[in-house]
Amino acid sequence: MKRILTLDGGGIRGVFSLEILLHMQKMLRRHYGRDDLLLRDHFDFFAGTSTGAIIAACLAWGYTLEQILDLYVRFGKKMFQPIPWYLPWKRYGISRFDARPLSEMLQRIFSEDGEGKVPALLGTEKLRMSDGALKLLLVVVRNHTTGSAWPVTNNPNAEFGRREQEECNLDIPLYQLIRASTAAPVYFDPEVIHLGRSRYVFVDGSITPYNNPALIAALTAILPCYHLEWETGPDKIRIVSLGTLRFPSGLPPTAHHLWVGYNASHIPAALIQGIASEQDYLCRCLGECLYGEPVDSEVRDLIGIPLPGHRWFSYVRYNRSFKAAEVADLLREHPSLARLDAVHAIPILRRLGETYAEKNVKLEHLI
User: Fold this and answer.
1) Going residue by residue through the chain (367 aa), what tens digit of pLDDT does each one get?
2) Which SS3 state, helix, strand or coil, does residue 202 take?
3) Which residue, 64, 161, 201, 57, is CA-closest to 119?
4) Residue 282, exposed/middle/buried by CB under 10 A (0-12, 13-18, 19+)?
5) Distance (Å, rounded) from C-alpha 132 to C-alpha 270?
């Protein structure tokens, strides 16, 4: 069986996903009797958007979950370092946070020398196992120059992974690609990447249809145009998809609240959340859903429901959605929790993830 692990965007709420992954790592280590097992020993393909891209790349690189959690806990505040109001906009753009600390951290991690002096490219050999097997990595970005979503992989057989291409994606510095995927508008400045003779401006992958990258990862593995062409079937491909919590995005009960300021601040998040839910729904329709919370009160979870057509893969979705009534007290205590930069809420995010994982993650979902 081929196994795909996908990770949604969500800023610092990626800590919720990390606690679930930590539980998965412990469970798999017990199962295989290996205290040194890494998730890259179990999964063949990692896909991530925004904060999910950071986590996916670290896992493909060979980091333990403890190491990645430590990065988020130690550097969380530094990653969301506000730009002082008195500094000139021409130097720092118009974003709320300085992207340099995040960029420098990623450059140190994803380098050939371990110090950030020799940046690793997407085609680096460090994404190979000791037996030469390539760990596939997909990072979702939005090419602001072309106005299109770019799900970029390190597959050397992909259309733009071939070395004869003038603009070969494998020549993109890995740290820049990941930083581009995290360049949430308003939060961080875009990332400029030179590819061949072209110059592109990239922004956060969460403003593409693939903030939840599960479906595009599945299509990348299956469709002939991507040149992987994995054999399909619930016993052939297993997708494990992780979210970063879902908070209510409903509108207030009276129409007079819907003024332009409200729409400007709420509609982007509502659209991102809605599209991510659609990707989850489609995965359950195209695959055999083994686990996941209900899509809604009509569709429910689609677990064990006979559906027309061939099932392309088996599918597991881990995420927790909050209803308006239950989230009120939580947000009253931690008002920033729903935001991408909720660094002060890291302890509660960890507790939520740990509690969720203990209750919901099962070994049979993973193997």
Assistant:
1) 999 999 999 999 999 999 999 999 999 999 999 999 999 999 999 999 999 999 999 999 999 999 999 999 988 888 887 776 666 554 545 678 889 999 999 999 999 998 999 999 999 999 999 899 999 999 999 999 999 999 999 999 999 999 888 899 999 999 999 999 999 888 899 999 999 899 999 999 999 999 999 999 999 999 999 999 999 999 999 999 999 999 876 555 555 566 566 565 566 677 788 888 999 999 999 999 999 999 999 999 999 999 999 999 999 999 999 887 777 777 777 777 777 888 989 999 999 999 999 999 999 999 9
2) strand
3) 57
4) middle
5) 43
Are the beta carbons of 98 and 72 closer than 8 angstroms? Answer: no
Per the CB < 8 A criterion, the answer to whether 109 and 103 are in contact is no
* Token couple for 72: 């988020």
pTM of the model: 0.93
Please say whether the beta carbons of 302 and 285 come within 8 A. yes
H or E element, residue 151: strand 148-153
Q: Which two tokens stand for residue 109?
A: 């991690």
Tell me the H-state helices in the chain. 14-32, 39-42, 51-61, 65-79, 89-92, 100-109, 174-181, 214-222, 260-286, 324-333, 346-360, 363-366
Rounded to 10 degrees, what is the CA torsion of 308, 311, 312, 314? 140
* 340-345 contacts, C-beta under 8 A, 24 or more apart: 340/10, 340/11, 340/12, 340/13, 340/51, 340/184, 340/187, 341/11, 341/12, 341/80, 341/96, 341/97, 341/187, 342/11, 342/12, 342/13, 343/12, 343/76, 343/77, 343/79, 343/80, 345/12
Q: How would you write 73-138 as a 3-class SS string?
A: HHHHHHHCCECCCCCCHHHHCCCCECCHHHHHHHHHHCECCCCCCCECECCCHHHECCCCCECEEE
CB 171 within 8 A of CB 242: no
CA distances from 261 to 85, 257, 338 (A): 22, 9, 18
Helix (H, G, I), strand (E, B) or coil at 47: strand
H/E stretch holding 199 reads strand 198-204
Q: How many CB atoms lie within 10 A of CB 119?
A: 18
Q: Whose CA is closest to 245, among 278, 212, 267?
A: 212
Three-state secondary-structure class, residue 160: coil
